[in-house]
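Researcher: Go.
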Amino acid sequence: MRIAIDAMGGDHAPRAQVESAIAAASEWPDIELILVGNPGVLEPLLGADAPSNIRIHPAMEVIESDEEPVKAVRRKSDSSMVVAGRLVKEGQADAMISAGNTGALMAVGLLVVGRLKGIDRPGLAPMLPTLDNAGLLALDLGANMDAKPEHLLQYALMGSLYRQKVHGIAKPRVGLLNVGSEAAKGNELTKAAYELLVQAPINFIGNVESRDVLEGQCDVLVCDGFSGNILLKGIEGTASALFKILKRELTATWTSKLAALALKPSFSRVKRSLDYNEYNGAPLLGLNGLVLKGHGSSDAAAMKTAIRLARTAIGNGLVTALADEFKGK
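Model: Structure:
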């Protein structure tokens, strides 16, 4: 299993990428990790005692977070992100991981790696935390702002197969994000998509309202990129606001500070259950290769989570299964 890592992309690159690679390579000797980036920067961080299943592949340019995605991908052909995508395209790597510019990574997926035959639009599919700790795969959460009913059908099929292959769920429950649970609710897109999903060879449970998303009602949540991204940012913003309110209230008086001290272990567990580090590595499903997007603020632990996810997906033949599913469609 060969996994290419964009070693120069992300807020904590390249140190986080190198540290995660060392930890992952030591724990999983069955993988080969390819750090893509400037050797002059990476070699000192890697050191002389690095595991033998890590190697550096040179790439002398970097796509910055504020660059226009498509222009950057076309102009910086020797960037770490583009080169990592090229390794996947050419069969020199089985997967790539990047915590860099999200738009640029999507462009690399489409322009360099390429779509699977039968897929109209790949979807970004991060895991969201749920109250039952099982997690929820949601797609699309931002790859495509506009979608057709057929695209949502493809998301449902890909998401269902992903949870089967990567998480071992035999019959994943698939829900459609909507403004009401009734079948007749929604706009023209969701109504048409509902009719397609009812007939699809998946375990479709119907509409799911945004207030119920984290309750664990379904294993896969299908939505268009516009609605999905609003949902994602809303959840992130609400969680951040709640922690700020708790911190303010629990430090307001000496009695509340004593209560906070007693409850600190519980708050730590709550924070950990909402930590993106535990769910890092959102696949861009529908590509002719495995491409994972790490959170821009990924530290070494978060990057290692993404590497573990890539290893599992490769081992279970995710991309091959997706290709077979959409063959001839």
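Model: The first helix runs from residue 15 to 27.
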